Automatic annotation (TrEMBL):
InterPro entries: Quino_amine_DH_bsu, WD40/YVTN_repeat-like_dom_sf. SUPFAM superfamilies: YVTN repeat-like/Quinoprotein amine dehydrogenase. This is PQQ-like domain protein. Keywords: Signal. Residues 1-20 form the signal peptide.
């Protein structure tokens, strides 16, 4: 009896270890309120809030490499919060066990004025500061150890789109319509022009795609250098249709972008996928399933190579909120599951993507906005 009680107390202090043979843990979800400075962490196995934190202001949240941390970008407060998920790892040499712990705010940083675009690749993280055109660069391997970062200056304020590669940092500029290549020491090594109103970026292998008002600019690393080529918008494209957001998944040899009332596949050309309404959010889940939330309030799965709609589910009323201060439904994609935040209802829907069935409603209160799914790869759960 005493031994059992002592063991229970030790587990309570150290965290719960999920050993091999137990059911797979679905991870945790970080939820940023769209109106106030509030972050919540939901344990997706229990469906419960296990962390609730006051932060500098509303945020967009992003998953850091490794899946243990999330970055919350507070643009208007000039701050970045780094959240530890509580998904710990215990190293046993030949394997690692997942240890469930209490989440916390690991660091609150000033990365620069008006931090906005976040992009991670490999072990690198880049945050572009619109207020002065600097890029804050983090090494994800140091998260939990040292809260430091380096900085690259592009010379002027802008709305930038950074991509941190292994040996160089690419920085796209909306106002100047260029992509610049910098060394990690801050030296500009190359520049590619011809991408008006540049917005949106994604990485696939050695190629980075940037959305332009008139097409997509592909910047490819070849050896120690880079080359670029431009893909034009399709002939007869609707007025104002353009690529402004891009996603990629290693399973597929192409990028997917938004394009008017539809999506577009980007490979050697731009191939349009029509949709029943404008895309609001879209992306790939862990295994490469393409998922789209459209403005008519429906969630869809698509065949990535053709754009064929496979399944659909109504998850909300038509999405009409727009303009400054508006909080629109958002989405995070996990392992065969979509999480859709409904700001007006204070809840998050969990949808099973294989069947497109609503699994549960997570009531978080407030005005849930941005979401980030955290999951540790490679651990024995």
């Amino acid at each position: 009896m005493r031994k059992s009680l002592l063991l229970a107390l030790m587990l309570g202090m150290l965290g719960t270890q999920a050993t091999a043979g137990e059911e797979h843990h679905p991870g945790r979800l970080v939820v940023a309120d769209g109106k106030i400075g509030l972050l919540q962490v939901i344990d997706l196995e229990k469906g419960e809030v296990v962390g609730r934190f006051t932060v500098p202001g509303p945020a967009n949240v992003y998953t850091a490499p490794g899946g243990q941390y999330a970055f919350a970008i507070h643009r208007e407060q000039n701050r970045v919060s780094v959240v530890y998920s509580g998904l710990g790892l215990e190293d046993h040499g030949d394997h690692k066990d997942l240890v469930l712990q209490t989440p916390y705010i690991w660091a609150t940083l000033n990365s620069g004025p008006k931090p906005t675009h976040f992009k991670s690749h490999g072990d690198r993280i880049a945050i572009y500061n619109d207020g002065d055109g600097t890029v804050a660069l983090f090494d994800a391997r140091k998260l939990g150890l040292v809260a430091d970062f380096s900085e690259i200056s592009t010379g002027a304020p802008d709305h930038g789109a950074p991509v941190p590669l292994a040996q160089a940092v690419l920085v796209g500029s909306l106002n100047r319509g260029v992509v610049e290549v910098y060394t990690y020491g801050g030296r500009k090594a190359a520049q590619f022009e011809g991408c008006p109103r540049l917005h949106g970026q994604a990485v696939l292998g050695s190629t980075v795609a940037y959305g332009c008002a008139d097409g997509v600019l592909l910047v490819e690393q070849r050896g120690n250098g880079f080359v670029a080529r431009k893909l034009a918008n399709p002939i007869g494209a609707p007025q104002g249709a353009r690529v402004g957001t891009l996603v990629a998944h290693p399973k597929h040899p192409f990028f997917i972008g938004n394009f008017g009332q539809g999506l577009v596949r980007v490979d050697s050309t731009l191939s349009v996928y029509p949709l029943p309404a404008n895309p609001v959010r879209f992306g790939f889940d862990k295994d490469g399933r393409l998922v789209v939330l459209t403005a008519d309030g429906h969630l869809h799965t698509l065949e990535p190579a053709t754009g064929k709609v496979l399944r659909s589910l109504k998850v909300s009323e038509p999405i009409t909120a727009s303009g400054e201060g508006a909080v629109r439904p958002s989405m995070a994609l996990g392992d065969g599951v979509a999480y859709v935040a409904l700001p007006e209802k204070g809840e998050i829907l969990e949808v099973e993507l294989d069947t497109m069935a609503l699994k549960r409603r997570l009531n978080v209160g407030g005005t849930p906005g941005s979401l980030a799914w955290l999951w540790v790869e490679g651990a024995q759960h």
